[in-house]
Write a structure and sequence with these properties.
2 strands; two-stranded antiparallel sheet; mainly alpha; disordered C terminus
């Protein structure tokens, strides 16, 4: 049983890291496409690409899907919240990217981790361990190291506030999605993509933005399928096991991958601060992995002591319990007491 649970957690961790890798390509490639596509139209095309791509996948999966896996009326509030927030967030992000740099937008995206965790803790009462709080602190520190590295990296500007607003919206959206993540991932991503995409497109037309050439539309749709569709798909699969806060912490790899892609695609250079922050991020990720794999157990044990006193033989049974943590590797678990520990229990209880 525990072996199965551990394999499930490791699979979920790979899903979360996969989601980060898929999403990482979004910011630098969107920065390139925004030269030819208006920001709100760009946000719409990205989500439409996600909905169309995963929707096609859903056509093949649908016959195998049990009815209980599909969204129902009780899921409607979270579904509406998910769609509305997914209309607002990408528009804010595209505007932020347009008014700032790709690396700046990538790094500020780490605020989504903090927003997701705090909302999961305060509104959805999701358990957040000390180990995960430490991971969030290290991830935030790594972001701060990069944020203040110099000119072009972070400015208190309209672009920065727009990206922070997008991250906050996605933090709340992550928790809405978490509440329905036990339902069909295919259905969730298809609804999320198509509804959010159409909502953004209507907004774009209302504000007077025009559609670009067909080649740019195709490029944005493909980018949306990979960076949003596959990313959201694997993210939700991870959430089913890890929860919103922990999945978001694994997702912290995305800004670093995005910064590397910015170096390659946009010639945005990386300083020594980047590598210092990378080391901090690795430690933070290690805390997340530990929080995923380490289990806490309370064990109750009985020890029987026989001794002779004044010519009489006495037998004492001592029961005690303790809590300890360990990495679960199989279905068996045991531990042993030292002689000094047993003598201490004997002295205290006799």
């Amino acid at each position: 049983m525990r072996n199965t649970e551990q394999r499930s957690k490791l699979t979920a961790a790979f899903y979360a890291l996969g989601a980060a890798c898929f999403y990482a390509i979004n910011v630098p490639l969107s920065k390139l496409l925004l030269d030819s596509i208006p920001p709100t139209v760009m946000a719409a095309l990205l989500y439409l690409g996600a909905g169309l791509g995963v929707g096609i996948m859903y056509l093949f999966h649908f016959p195998k899907e049990h009815r209980t896996e599909r969204l129902c009326r009780s899921d409607l509030p979270y579904t509406i919240g998910m769609v509305v927030l997914d209309i607002i967030a990408p528009i804010l992000l595209m505007l932020g990217i347009k008014h700032g740099t790709s690396s700046n937008a990538s790094l500020l995206g780490n605020f989504e981790i903090v927003a997701t965790t705090l909302i999961a803790l305060m509104l959805f009462k999701e358990k957040v361990s000390k180990r995960l709080f430490a991971a969030i602190g290290l991830i935030t520190l790594a972001s701060a190291v990069l944020t203040f590295e110099g000119s072009g990296s972070f400015d208190i500007s309209l672009g920065s506030f727009l990206v922070l607003g997008a991250a906050s919206c996605w933090g709340l959206e992550n928790n809405c999605t978490r509440s329905i993540s036990n339902k069909s991932t295919y259905q969730i991503v298809t609804i999320k993509g198509l509804c959010s995409g159409m909502g953004s497109m209507v907004t774009a037309l209302i504000v007077g933005e025009r559609l670009p050439d067909l080649r740019y539309i195709a490029a944005a749709l493909i980018l949306g399928f990979v960076a949003y569709g596959l990313s959201i798909f694997t993210y939700i699969r991870a959430q089913k096991t890890l929860g919103a806060a922990k999945t978001s912490a694994f997702y912290a790899a995305a800004p670093f991958i995005g910064a590397l892609l910015s170096l390659v695609l946009l010639n945005e250079t990386l300083s020594a601060s980047y590598f210092a922050a990378l080391m901090i991020m690795i430690v933070g990720t290690a805390f997340v992995v530990a929080d995923t794999l380490v289990r806490q157990h309370r064990h109750e044990h009985s020890h029987t002591f026989t001794h002779t006193h004044d010519g009489s033989t006495h037998t004492h049974t001592i029961t005690h319990s303790h809590v300890h943590e360990h990495f679960v590797s199989d279905d068996r678990h045991g531990h042993r007491h030292t002689l000094e520990e047993l003598e201490k229990y004997h002295i205290e209880h006799v």
